[in-house]
Amino acid sequence: MKRYFRCTVCDDMHYGENAPEICPTCETMRSYVEVTKDEAKEYFLQQKTRQAQPVREVALRFA
Ligand SMILES: [Zn+2]
């Protein structure tokens, strides 16, 4: 089952079975924490105005 993860350093969102070892955005090791779908959506909406490209795939999951 896939889950939502958020980077505690740069708020990058990740959707998958496991959190990435290294954040692709800020390159911090093990910076991801699991969040609920609602939290993920909230962060996504905040992030949308800052940088749309990295979260495009995440956005599709909410459709
Ligand atoms: Zn990050």
Shape: globular
Structural class call reads alpha+beta
CATH architecture: Single Sheet
Strand portion: 15-25%
Key features?
63 residues; alpha+beta; Rubrerythrin, domain 2; 2 helices
Record the SSE blueprint.
Elements: E1 3-7, E2 13-16, E3 32-35, H1 37-48, H2 56-62
Antiparallel strand pairs: 1-2, 1-3
The chain binds zinc ion (ZN).
Zinc ion is lined by residues 7, 9-10, 12, 23, 25-26, 28, 31.
Task: Please provide a written account of the structure.
With 63 residues, the chain is an alpha+beta fold. The chain has a single domain (3-53), classed as Single Sheet (Rubrerythrin, domain 2), CATH 2.20.28. 30% of the residues lie in helices and 21% in strands. It has helices spanning 37-48, 56-62; strands at 3-7, 13-16, 32-35. The two termini are 18 Å apart. Zinc ion binds at residues 7, 9-10, 12, 23, 25-26, 28, 31.
Summarize the structure.
With 63 residues, the chain is α+β, with helices and mostly antiparallel strands. It contains two helices and three strands, in the order E-E-E-H-H. The longest helix is centred in the C-terminal third of the chain and has 12 residues, at 37-48.
